[in-house]
Amino acid sequence: KIGGQMSGVELFNVVQKLGINIHPYVFITAHTLDHNEFSKLDPNMPRPRVFCVEWLDPLMACGHWVPEMVEWAGGVEVVGKPAARSRVVDWSEVIDAQPEVLILMPCGIPIPRIREELGLLRRAPGWDQLPAVQREAIYLVDGPSYFNRAGPKLVDGVELLASLLHPEEGWPPVPAQAMEHVGSAGCSAGH
Prior knowledge:
This protein is an alpha/beta fold and about 190 residues long. Strands 1, 2, 3, 4, 5, 6, 7 and 8 form an eight-stranded mixed beta sheet that branches. Helix 1 packs across helix 2.
């Protein structure tokens, strides 16, 4: 089933069975989520609205385990569907969802190329009105290493998401090659 339509909980159960070291927060979150008790971890944690972009042209929302990874990291994926295939979405769906954070993680595309293709989104009607753009909460991430493929690096992907969504929680620093923060004008804003 690995590589198919697998939920995040199923995937992390496989990772655990393989004996891979999992950050305690991720382990507890996966098991708590599995029992529908996620809110007991921290009911007051703000949960930003997130849109994880799986592909830019055509525009595709994440699927499979990524929406659950976002939830485990303390966010809410507002366009992608858990345990479902990535899907083509209309830009109006993104506008309606009003994401507060945009995370671009196209499958198989390195960060420099994502940066080059970001203009596809920046030219879309309503781009400047998105909360994520106004907050300059736009991130380009190494999707192939941390999100797009089933495997142990997905645990690091949850931590990467958590560090972007909740930096105040003191997560380990994100490796420089794993992420780039982009300002609203599409220019690198540092890490």
